[in-house]
Specification:
Helices cover about 55% and strands about 15% of the residues. The chain is α/β, with parallel strands linked by helices and about 200 residues long. It has two domains: about 130 residues, Response regulator (Rossmann fold, 3-Layer(aba) Sandwich), CATH 3.40.50.2300; about 55 residues, Arc Repressor Mutant, subunit A, CATH 1.10.10. The mean pLDDT is about 90. Keywords: DNA-binding, Phosphoprotein.
């Protein structure tokens, strides 16, 4: 049996994924977490073979979960199932060791096949996205991305500094660097462009 944990913040999608995968004779759904922090706790407690996760969730994103799994060298393979057909997300997912990346519009049987393939050590990546992923590199570093994401949520430079334990000047420098790299006029435009490209 391939043991799965699901992480998805939308209850209806979570229930549907759990039901569909649970019908497969060789797959066992151990649990379904409603946010990233709960998923991280469940991962450590249940030790599944494969994590099937959305990207955007409260707490930790699917990408952050994958990064933690990679950092701690946990023997858990990750598949992302998302609505975001953005090359930037796929590149970051691959960098975090994700082996599967499917869109939510994919047929259910494709997900079950992806779970089997990834569990066996293969990759299951949406082919059109895979081609696009290498067309444009993400110019932002992790800190710039973090600061820009918080700025896009409406936090001031002072608030961001407090939240990330940085100085006000350092935050302004990161924002300025991000704006310059993206070739836009201000932090809001930088946030919008980076979101559109899948770099946040």
């Amino acid at each position: 049996m391939i043991r799965l944990l699901l992480a998805e913040d939308q209850a209806m999608v979570r229930g549907a994924l759990s039901a569909l995968l649970g019908m497969e004779p060789d797959l066992e759904v151990l649990g379904a977490s409603a946010d990233g922090e709960a998923a991280w706790r469940d991962l450590q407690r249940l030790q599944p073979d494969v994590l099937v996760t959305d990207i955007e969730m409260p707490g930790l994103s699917g990408l952050e979960l994958a990064q933690r799994i990679q950092r701690q060298q946990l023997p858990i393979k990750v598949i992302i199932v998302t609505t975001f057909a953005r090359a930037g997300f796929l590149r970051r997912a691959l960098d975090a060791g994700v082996l599967g990346y499917l869109l939510k519009e994919s047929p259910a049987e494709e997900l079950a096949q992806a779970v089997r393939k990834v569990h066996a050590g293969g990759r299951a990546i949406n082919p059109e996205l895979a081609m696009e992923a290498w067309s444009e590199a993400d110019p932002l570093n992790d800190r710039e991305r973090q600061v820009l994401r918080l700025a896009g949520e409406g936090l001031s430079a002072g608030d961001i500094a407090g939240k990330l334990s940085l100085s006000h000047g350092t935050v302004r420098n990161y924002l300025s660097e991000a704006i310059g790299k993206l070739g836009v006029g201000n932090r809001i435009e930088a946030y919008r462009l980076a979101r559109q490209k899948g770099w946040l």
